[in-house]
Amino acid sequence: MLLVDDDPAVAKVLGALLTQAGLTTHAARDGREALALLASKPVDVVVSDVRMPGMDGLQVLAEVARGWPDVPVILLTAHGTVPLAVEAMKAGAADFVLKPFDREEILFTVRKALLRAQGEEARQQVRPSGGFIGRSRAMADVQAVLVKAAAGTATVLLRGESGTGKELAAKAVHDASPRRDGPFVKLHCAALPDTLLESELFGYEKGAFTGAATRKPGRVELAHGGTLFLDEVGDISPAVQVKLLRVIQERELERLGGTQTVKVDVRFVAATHQPLEERVKEGRFREDLFYRLNVVPVWIPALRERPDDIEPLALHFLEVHAKTNGRPPFTLMADGLAALRAQPWPGNVRQLQNFLERLVVLSDTQVLGGKEVLQELARQPGLAPAPFAAAPSVSALETPTAPVTDSARTLESQRKEMERQAMVDALKRAGDNRTLAARLLGISRRTLYNKLEEYGLL
Fold first, then answer.
1. What is the reported pTM?
2. Where in the chain is the domain with CATH 3.40.50.300?
3. What keywords would UniProt list here (predicted)?
4. pLDDT tens digits along 189-211
5. Rounded to whole angstroms, how far apart are CA atoms 222 and 183?
6. N or C: which terminus of the chain has fewer CB atoms within 10 Å of its end residue's CB?
C-alpha cells in the first residue's frame, strides 16, 4: 500500500490502521515522492489525498495510470460530491473515500481495490491501443453494426473470446453515440464477490453495513447521462441478476440500505465470453435478463478467424511500442509476418500485442524477419515448441553416472541460475524499469520483487 498525503498526521493514522489489518504500507508527502516510491517498491494499491500542493491527487492518478496501469488508485477527499466522483471515475480512479474516514469503510474500500487488482492481474489485461484496426470483412461487419447501435439507446451485448477487444468495442459505441460527452463507466463483474459487486453497482446508504460511514453512489448512478459497461456480465450471481434486470427494465434503483428510489438515465453495454444460452438452459443465468441484454448482439471474431488483420495490427503495435520504448522504427519482413500468421493466438489481439511489445524491447535489430519472430515465439509457452535437447538413450538411463539425488539437486541449481539470469537480462533490457521488466517476463510486479529479493538483486 502506498499512502500519499501532505498531512503527516493523516498518513500516520491511516498507515497504522492498515498495518493493524496486516497490510504493508509506504508513505509519501507529495506526488513526486509517490512516483519515486512506485518505481522502487512493489505497490498493490495507492491511496492518495485529492488536494495537495504541487501535484494533486488527480494528477497522481493520471501518472499512475500512465506508468503503472495495473495499480488501482483510491482518492481521499474532504469535499466529496457526485461531480468530483464522476471526474475521478472518468480519470480511472478505483474508488473514493470521504474525510474524515471511518476505519471499517477505508478497510472495506482497500480490500475491494485489492480484489479488483488481483482480478486484473489474473486476466493479464493490456488494453489495445487506438481504435479498431484491420482490413478483414469480419471486422468491417462488426464496425458497421457498432455504428448503427451507437445512434440509439438499446442495450448492446458484446460476445467473443477474451482478448478480442470487447472493451474497445464498448468504448467505440459510447464515443459514437449522442452520450459521448457523458461519463463512460466500467465495471468488471467477475473481479468482485457478490457483496462487493452489489454495492459497486447500486451504491449504499450510511449504515447499510459495517464500514458504510457515508452515503455513496454506485456505478449505475455515476454513469447517469452516459454509458455503463458491464464486463463479464455472464459471471454474476442469480441474486445480482435480479436487481440488474430491474435497473435495465425500469431505469431505477435503491441503494443498499435505502428506501428512496433513484431514477437513472444510463445506456448499458455488456460483454461476456460465456455461452449464455447454455447457462440459461442450466438455470445459471436468468432468461429474462438474457433477453434484456441481448437486444443488439455483436460477436467479435477471434483473431485466428481473421488472419488478414494480423498484418495491420502487427504494424500498428510495432509502431506504438517502438515510440513508447524509445526505439527506432521497426520493419516487419514477409517471413516474419508469415510466422505471426501461422500462430493460433489463443489470447487473441491482447496476446499479439503483448508478444510484439516484448519483441520490440528484446530485439537487437530493427528488421524483424522469420528468425527473430521464431526466436521470441520459442520463449512463449503455447505459441511454438521450445528448443529441447535430445533424450538420453535407454542404456544411459540404466547406468547413471551420479546418484539421482545429486542430479536432481544439480537440475534445481541450474533452474535457479537460469531464472536469476533471466531476471538480470530483463532488468538490463528494460533499463532497470521494474514494471517493464515484469511485463517482459510475463509475471506480476509483486512476483518480480519477490524473485529479486530471493536472488539478492534488490
1. 0.62
2. 137-301
3. ATP-binding, DNA-binding, Nucleotide-binding, Phosphoprotein, Transcription, Transcription regulation, Two-component regulatory system
4. 988 888 789 888 998 888 777 77
5. 8
6. C
Which residues are registered as beta bridge partners of 156? 269, 296
Alpha-carbon gap, residue 332 to 313, rounded angstroms? 12
Note the CATH number of domain 2-123. 3.40.50.2300
Contact indicator for 95, 167 with CB cutoff of 8 Å: no
DSSP annotation of 303: G
Give the count of alpha carbons within 13 A of 290, CB side only: 17
Buried-state track 223-239, b at ≥16 Cβ within 10 A, e below 16: bbebbbbbbbbbbbeee
Enclosing H/E stretch for 120: helix 103-123
pLDDT tens digit sequence for 375-425: 888 877 666 533 333 333 333 333 333 443 444 445 556 667 777 887 787
- Find the helix or strand (DSSP H, E) in which 86 lies: helix 82-91
User: Which residue shows C-alpha cell 500500500?
Assistant: 1
Q: Looking at residue 309, what DSSP letter applies?
A: G
Q: Which of 342, 371, 377, 343 is nearest to 358 (CA)?
A: 377
Q: Helix or strand or coil: residue 209? A: coil
CA distances for 273 relative to 15, 138, 174, 234, 301, angstroms: 40, 18, 21, 8, 11
CATH of 137-301, one of 3.30.160.40, 3.30.70.660, 3.30.1360.180, 3.40.50.300: 3.40.50.300
- Cα gap 88→95, rounded to integer Å: 8
Cell numbers given for 245: 434486470
Pinpoint the residues of the chain covered by CATH 1.10.8.60.
Answer: 304-377
One-letter amino acid for residue 147 of the chain? V
φ/ψ (deg, to 5) at 134:
160, 165
CA diameter of the chain: 81
Residue 204 CA to residue 216 CA, distance in Å, equals 5
| Other CB atoms within 10 Å distance of the CB of residue 166 | 24
CA 3/CA 131 separation, integer angstroms: 35
Cell of 92: 480511472
98 sits in which H/E element: strand 95-98
CATH number of 415-458: 1.10.10.60
